[in-house]
Amino acid sequence: MIAAVIPNLTKTNAEQVTQELVKELRRLGIHVCMDAALYSSFPYRDIEFFEDFLGMIAACDIVIAVGGDGTIIHAAKHAALADKPILGVNAGRIGFVAGLEPNQLHRLHQLLDGTYKVERRLMLEASLKSEQYQNVYYALNEGVISRGSQSRILDFQVSYNDNNLCHYRADGLIVATPTGSTAYSLSAGGPVIEPAMRCLLLTPICPHSLMTRSVVFGEDTTLHINAVPNGQSEIFLTLDGETTIPVTEDECVRFQKSARSVSLIDLKYQTFYEVVNEKLSERRA
Question: Tell me: the pLDDT tens digits for 49-88?
């Protein structure tokens, strides 16, 4: 087995966790490969270092990301494009999508035993009408259309499957996957959705109405969102909090389920609701 290890060394304990992870993988006889930029931090002779990141993903059997949810989500999208499973090792604060905690590295033998779960998670595609919907942007958590810091509240027109839905007046709109229901959407008042479900979730950000609530759509729904011009606003499309694209006024953004999905490895064998209770209790603490 070949494992591509992708750590986020900006996290406080990520380097230590990665050192312990690599030691355990080597003990198990799992071949480790890493980005060449990490050689100075992990100068082991039996690690294969790649100058080509995408080549490393293509060459491995499994991707292992060490960090918080952002790190794991970023790596997961690369893994999904190469049709590789990913294991997230939590070295962040929450770790909703992590399949292993730092104190559980002894469970890595399950990768060889085959005694682990693989969860197929729905991904989101976003595209712009001005680009003839040809350029596709992927998200595992959510796509957000929102105003700039100096902009006024925005007006949005939303349609689904070419049927008019409604008009929103808000700071922004979140289109989330079930995986993303516990991220930004939850903070904006959206519901928690079990990740095994196949659906899209629309949640407004600070809506200018007491009656505006989140809406859940079937997985085959296509959403079109127009930011109605007011002449004084900056508008941005942000994917998973890491890719930001300027959107012109009166631009149409299309959201739909991706044909690709993320295969998340779980070695903890906790139910989703056990994880939610544990992680949200940590957040309150």
Answer: 999 999 999 999 999 999 999 999 999 999 999 999 999 9
Residue 162: left if φ>0, alpha if ψ -120 to 50, beta else—which one? left
155 three-class SS: strand
- In the beta sheet, which residues pair with residue 226? 157, 252
- The answer to whether residues 3 and 32 touch, using CB atoms and an 8 Å cutoff, is yes
* Per-residue pLDDT reduced to its tens digit, 206-239: 998 766 889 999 999 999 999 886 767 788 999 9
DSSP code of 129?
A: G
Q: For residue 123, which of 234, 255, 229 has the smallest C-alpha distance?
A: 255
C-alpha 195/C-alpha 212 separation (Å) is: 24
Active site residues: 69
Token digits of residue 100: 């292993």
Is the pTM of the predicted complex or chain greater than 0.90?
yes
Contact (CB, 8 A) for 18 and 6: no
